[in-house]
Amino acid sequence: METQLPQFFPAVSVIVLNWNGARYLERCLEAIAAQTFQDYEVIVLDNASTDGSQKQVAQRWPAFSLVEFERNLGFALGNNQGARLARGQWIAILNNDAFPETGWLANLVGAAQTHPEYNFFSSRLVNAEDREIVQGTGDVYHVSGFAWPRDQQRPVQNAHLAEEEIFSPCAAAAMYDRQAFLAVGGFDEQFVSHFEDVDLGFRLRLSGHRCLYVPNAIVAHVGSASYGQESDRTVYQVQRNVVWCYFANMPGWLFWKYLPAHLFANLVFLAYYSLRGQWKAVWKAKWHALRALPVILRKRRVLQSDFIRRSRCATVDQIERVLEHSWGGPFVLGRRAQKVRRFLRRWNKRKP
Questions:
Q1: Confidence at residue 346, expressed as pLDDT on a 0 to 100 scale
Q2: Among 349, 332, 329, which residue's Cα sits nearest to residue 340?
Q3: 7: helix, coil or strand?
Q4: In angstroms, rounded to a whole number, what is the distance separating the alpha carbons of residues 22 and 279?
Q5: Which residues of the chain fall below pLDDT 70?
Q6: From CA 218, how far away is CA 202, in angstroms rounded?
Q7: Which pLDDT does position 329 carry in this prediction?
Q8: Is 20 helix (H, G, I), strand (E, B) or coil?
Q9: What is the pLDDT of residues 285-329, one digit of tens each?
Q10: What letter does residue 129 receive in the DSSP assignment?
Q11: How far apart, in Å, are the Cα atoms of 317 and each of 251, 321, 322?
Q12: Which position among 9, 290, 291, 352 has the lowest Cβ density within 10 Å, counted as fewest Cβ atoms?
C-alpha cells in the first residue's frame, strides 16, 4: 500500500474508494475539484483495479493522494483504511459513481457548523440519468431490522426537501466526524459491503450521535455500478448483513419486542428471492448469517454491556423514536415495491 499524503490538516478529507471504475472515476474527481469549498484533501483508494483507472488519478490528478491496495479489500475495510489516513476533522465518503454538485461540500460543512449537535450528515442523492428522480434522502431503519433509502424513486418535488434528523446516511455520499467514526470502529469489516453504512449509523446512534439530512447537498449517483442493483452478490451480502446488524445493535428490550418482525421479514425475503430464481444467493446468505451468530453475539455483548449503556448518551426510548414503524414498510416502499408489483403481475399471468 503506497501512501503519500499532503502535510497539512484540512477541514474535510474526501475519500473515494475505486474498483474498476474507469467509466465514472474521472467525472467523480472532476466534480470534487469543482467544489466551491476548497479546504479539503482527496484520498483515492484503489482496490487493485485491473481497468487502469488508478492510472487516471496519477496522471490527471497529481494533487490528489492515491493509495493502491494489493488486493480488493471491499468497501468497509477500504474506507476504514482511508479514514485512518485522513487528516481532516470531517471525512466525506463518496462513491466513484457519485457526482456532487459544486456546493456539496460547502453545504455539508455549513450544516455541521450551524448544527453542532449533529455528528454525521446525509446528502440528497438523485438519479444520475434523471436528476428529477430522487435516489434517496437518507436511510430509514425499520423495526424489523431492514432498511431502505427514503424517498427512493420519487420525483424531487415530492421528496423531503427540508433539513431534519434521519436515522443514518447512505455512505455513497455522506460526511462523518472523523473522531466519532473511528471511536465506534468505523465500518464493520466483517460486512465487506452493503448495509455497512446502516450498521455504522446504528453504532453511532448507540454512542449518542445524531444524523442530519442536508437537502441542498446534492449528489447525482449511478448506484451499484460495481455489482448491479440486485445481482446475486448484492442479494447475498444485503440479506446476510441485515441479520448481523439487527442482532448486534438492536438495544435492550427492543431486541425482543421486534424479533418476531425481524424473523417474519427474513422469511418473506427468503420466499421472494427464491421465487425470483435467486434462491441460492438468499439461502446461502441466511445460512452464513446464522453460522456467524456466535461472533455477532460477542460483538453485541460489547455494544450492549453495562459500561456502554452507562456511558452512551442515547437511551433505548430515543433509539425507538428514530425507527420506522410502518406496517409492511420493508416490502412496499421504493424500488423494491415496483419490483414486487411487477413480479406479482408476472406470477398471476402464469396461473392457469
A1: 57
A2: 332
A3: coil
A4: 32
A5: 1-8, 224-229, 306-312, 332-352
A6: 23
A7: 72
A8: coil
A9: 999 999 999 999 999 998 887 545 555 678 889 999 999 998 877
A10: S
A11: 10, 6, 9
A12: 352
Give yes or no for a contact between 75 and 192, defined as CB atoms under 8 angstroms apart. yes
Q: What residue ranges in the chain does DSSP mark as E strands?
A: 12-18, 40-46, 65-68, 90-95, 98-100, 120-127, 134-136, 139-141, 147-149, 164-166, 173-177, 211-221
For residue 301, the Cα-to-chain-centroid distance in whole angstroms is: 24
pTM of the predicted structure, to 2 decimals: 0.90
Are the CB atoms for 6 and 65 separated by under 8 Å?
A: yes
Q: What is the pLDDT of residues 117-171, one digit of tens each?
A: 999 999 999 999 999 999 999 999 999 999 999 999 899 999 999 999 999 999 9
Strand positions, DSSP E, 29-186: 40-46, 65-68, 90-95, 98-100, 120-127, 134-136, 139-141, 147-149, 164-166, 173-177
Distance of alpha carbon 191 from alpha carbon 248, whole angstroms: 12
What are the residues whose beta carbons fall under 8 Å from the beta carbon of 285, sequence distance 6 or more? 235, 236, 237, 238, 239, 240
Question: Cell triple for residue 1?
Answer: 500500500
The backbone torsions φ and ψ at residue 317, rounded to the nearest 5 degrees and listed phi first, read -65, -40
3-state SS, 222-291, equals CCCCCCCCCCHHHHHHHHHHHHHHHHHHCCHHHHHHHHHHHHHHHHHHHHHHHHCCCHHHHHHHHHHHHH
Beta-strand pair 211-221/98-100: antiparallel
For residue 267, CA distances in Å to 49, 79, 198, 263, 344 come to: 37, 32, 21, 6, 17
Instruction: Give the integer Cα–Cα distance in Å for 193 and 98.
Output: 17
